[in-house]
Amino acid sequence: MHTPQHPVFTSEYWNIPQLDHAQLPDIQHHIDTKTKPIGALGQLESIAKKLSLTQGYHSGNYQYIEINHPTIMIFAADHGIAQNGVSIASSEVTRQMVANFLAGGAAINCFCYTLDIQIKIIDAGMLQPIETPHPMLINQSIASGTADFSIKPAMTHVQAEQCLFMGQQAAVQQLQTGTNVLGFGEMGIGNTSAASALLSVLTGLPAQQTTGIGTGITSEQLNKKIHLIDLALQRVQQRYASDTLDPQSALVEVGGFEIGQIVGAMLATASAGKNILVDGFIVSIAALIATRIAPQVQQFMLFAHCSAENAHQLLLKELNATPLLDLGLRLGEGTGAALAVPLLKVAANFYTNMATFDSAQVTV
Ligand SMILES: Cc1cc2ncn([C@H]3O[C@H](COP(=O)(O)O)[C@@H](O)[C@H]3O)c2cc1C
Ligand SMILES: O=C(O)c1cccnc1
């Protein structure tokens, strides 16, 4: 029954560098010489440490960090599960919102415009492609939406492999332009259902705990959503005789094309030694899958925020991650990731430019 694991689902394939953690005492010392009480910059110090470990690994200079051309990559795809009315919107809205991104009208456009962040939109598998070429749009659709995972596998094993390859391709292309931080976002009506089902099959947690209101559905819709995810879990349990699945089978059974492509893009970003900004619930499930494939990927990840989707806290705990912001957002699109970019910029700036007690002649 089990298909042999494809190399793209092994950590060997991604060959992610092991960062030099022996540098940490020097990095800490560099921070502690700055004109401030020890630890007074809180989580900004943790950000600076992570960025320094990553950037120093390549440059050899652990005392200098910079944020170059930060970019949000929004992966979009449709979901068969959405036919069951588990969202406030129908699948057409995925494409309509992508058109809105391209026209500059969505929340993520406003945030990125304000914060000077580049945007790329990737069609990973929408029901209908956008035909007109656009400089922000990358067409790499796997298929016209996934199958309804409450009754059958969402995708084939080959499609799951294609997801990782295509995600890799998009990230590599963007990194070639000189970007050193990639933030990830998503658009796909029904994708909180896929994310909840993925969390269940990856951790063994029941649907009741992993499922939330997504776009803001009624309690009746929420019960239906939980029931459909339960049906999928029963189907999966019969097939695999196990409570938890490997990453490839998880994507095949209950995943989404945008989620799979984000996994590939994250692994490729880490493989290139660059940092990853993780957005909300859906992008975090891609982060969990990526860490299950290659645990070293997590050295490169910064978790932007804790979403109001209730299972996000559980998921962050599973990842042992501390989110930077907690603003009650539950939108996706990469909005949380975008909001964390200024924090990375100020962390880089204080780490690189702030005066030391010696240089400023401050005596404590
Ligand atoms: C107008 C609109 C804009 C959005 N932007 C992001 N999402 C978010 O909502 C969807 C996930 O929630 P669910 O599983 O409940 O469908 C995703 O597309 C996500 O990006 C949106 C949803 C809507 C309706
Ligand atoms: O946390 C998220 O990413 C999220 C939550 C609800 C709907 N869309 C996205």
UniProtKB/TrEMBL annotation:
GO terms for biological process: cobalamin biosynthetic process. InterPro entries: Nict_dMeBzImd_PRibTrfase, Nict_dMeBzImd_PRibTrfase_bact, Nict_dMeBzImd_PRibTrfase_N, Nict_dMeBzImd_PRibTrfase_sf. Pathway: Nucleoside biosynthesis; alpha-ribazole biosynthesis; alpha-ribazole from 5,6-dimethylbenzimidazole: step 1/2. Signal peptide: none annotated. Pfam families: DBI_PRT. Keywords: Cobalamin biosynthesis, Glycosyltransferase, Transferase. The keyword Glycosyltransferase applies. Belongs to the CobT family. HAMAP family: CobT (MF_00230). NCBIfam families: cobT_DBIPRT, PRK00105.1. This is Nicotinate-nucleotide--dimethylbenzimidazole phosphoribosyltransferase. It comes from Paraglaciecola psychrophila 170. The gene is cobT.
